[in-house]
Specification:
Blueprint: E1 3-8, E2 15-19, E3 32-37, E4 40-43, E5 50-56, E6 62-68, E7 78-83, E8 88-91, E9 98-103, E10 109-114, E11 127-132, E12 137-140
Antiparallel strand pairs: 1-2, 2-3, 3-4, 5-6, 6-7, 7-8, 9-10, 10-11, 11-12
Length: about 170
C-alpha cells in the first residue's frame, strides 16, 4: 500500500508519514500515522481514527496530526499530539474540522487550522489557532472581521507568503 505525507525532523533522521498498509498494522484501509527512525517503524496514531497530515518537532519527539473518528466523517476532525518519549497522546482541538498542524521545536505549542467557533470567529469559517500544551489554552491567531459584500478589494491584494509551509516545525 501507499505511504504519503512525509514530515521530517530538523535533521531528517526521523520521518513521520501516513499509510494504510496492512503490513504496518493498519486496520483495513484506514490511514494511520507512523514514524520511521533508526530503530524501525512505530505507529503513533490509534486504530480508532483515520489519521492524516503529520508534523514533527525538530528533535522528532513530538508528532502532531489530524484525525477523524470515522473515515467518512469528513466535516469533523481534531488535532492530536503524540509524545514518543512517554507514548502519551493529547487531544489539542475539538469541534469543527481541524487540519494542517505544525508543532514547535520543543513540542510545547501546536498551531492548526479549524472551522470550530471561537470567540469572535463564527463556526464554519477556517481560522488559525495556537494551542499552548503547558497551559491547555487555545487562542485564535487570525482575525475574522465582517466584510461588506460590495466593498472594493484592498489596495494591495497580493497574497501574503508564509515562511512556514505545512508540516514544517515552528521555532521554539
Amino acid at each position: 500500500a501507499e505511504a504519503a505525507e512525509p514530515a521530517p525532523s530538523a535533521d531528517g533522521a526521523i520521518v513521520a508519514f501516513t499509510s494504510s498498509a496492512s503490513n504496518l498494522g493498519a486496520p483495513g484501509r484506514q490511514s494511520r500515522v507512523y514514524v520511521r527512525d533508526g530503530d524501525g517503524v512505530e505507529v503513533v496514531s490509534d486504530a480508532g481514527a483515520f489519521a492524516f497530515e503529520p508534523a514533527v518537532s525538530a528533535d522528532g519527539r513530538f508528532v502532531a496530526y489530524a484525525a477523524r473518528r470515522r473515515a467518512r466523517a469528513a466535516r469533523r476532525s481534531e488535532i492530536r499530539l503524540y509524545d514518543r518519549l512517554t507514548a502519551r497522546t493529547t487531544t489539542i482541538s475539538r469541534g469543527g474540522y481541524a487540519s494542517e498542524p505544525a508543532v514547535s521545536a520543543d513540542g510545547r505549542r501546536v498551531v492548526f487550522t479549524s472551522t470550530a467557533a471561537h470567540d469572535t470567529k463564527p463556526s464554519g469559517l477556517a481560522g488559525v489557532f495556537l494551542h499552548d500544551v503547558d497551559t491547555g489554552r487555545t487562542r485564535l491567531l487570525s482575525a475574522h472581521a465582517p466584510v461588506a459584500l460590495d466593498a472594493p478589494p484592498p489596495r494591495d491584494s497580493r497574497p501574503l507568503l508564509c515562511p512556514l509551509a505545512r508540516g514544517h516545525a515552528l521555532a521554539a
